[in-house]
Amino acid sequence: MADDEKNELEETEETPEVEAEAGDASEATAVSDAAPAAEEAAPQPAAKKRSLKHVPRSQRRQRPKVVREKPATRKPVARTPKTEAERGSRQERRGVVVSDKGDKTIVVKVDVIKIHPKYKKVVRRTVKFHAHDEENTAGVGDTVRIVETRPLSKTKHWRLAEVVEKAR
After folding, report:
1. Are residues 101 and 161 in the same domain?
2. Contact 16, 32 (CB under 8 A)
3. Structural domain includes residue 50
């Protein structure tokens, strides 16, 4: 196909000369015929402007890394000793005793009220905790306060702090 285009270009260049030599056509027509041939033969822009999506690594913008000054001497690490009381804040819950059948164990039902993060609706849930009751003082229906503690058994991680209200 490239050969065909070359042949056409050669033919268009020759035709004005043939017309001028023959003298049949006037100079105006020769100039008008030569003008399109010159436009076709004129070179197009060398290359399209490259997009900047991919730039070779050597031509990329360089950012020099900031070097921090190192101090002459290091500061001593200052640590304050932790006191025994600040070991960790223990959770406290208040609930109603559902069962006291186990020896030194009560089951406490705690109502948890949360607001749903997306829908902003108040959601009520109940959670049951097994709590350690050393003297078996709590009975079914009592309102009690329980405190989080170390694991005492497979299910007991809470202990009875106080009986807030006795059941009738």
Report:
1. yes
2. no
3. no
Helix (H, G, I), strand (E, B) or coil at 59: helix
Q: 92 forms bridges with which residues in the sheet?
A: 147
Q: Is residue 11 part of a domain?
A: yes
**Is residue 54 assigned to a domain?**
no
Contact between 85 and 101 (Cβ < 8 Å): no
Secondary structure letter of residue 122 according to DSSP: E
Domain that holds residue 12: 2-38
- Count of structural domains, the chain: 2
Q: What is the Cα–Cα distance from 47 to 122, expressed in whole angstroms?
A: 67
- The answer to whether 94 and 161 have CB atoms below 8 angstroms apart is no
End-to-end CA distance of the chain: 106
Domain harbouring 112, CATH code: 2.40.50.140
Q: Give the tens place of pLDDT for each residue, 152-161.
A: 999 999 999 9
Nearest CA-CA partner of 107 in 150, 135, 144: 144
Please tell me the total number of residues recorded for the chain in this structure. 168
> 53-64, pLDDT tens digit by residue?
788 888 877 888
Task: Give residue for tokens 């031509």.
Answer: 59
pLDDT digits (tens, 9 = 90+) for 95-136: 999 999 999 999 999 999 999 999 999 999 999 999 999 999
User: Which segments of the chain does DSSP mark as H helices, in order?
Assistant: 2-22, 27-41
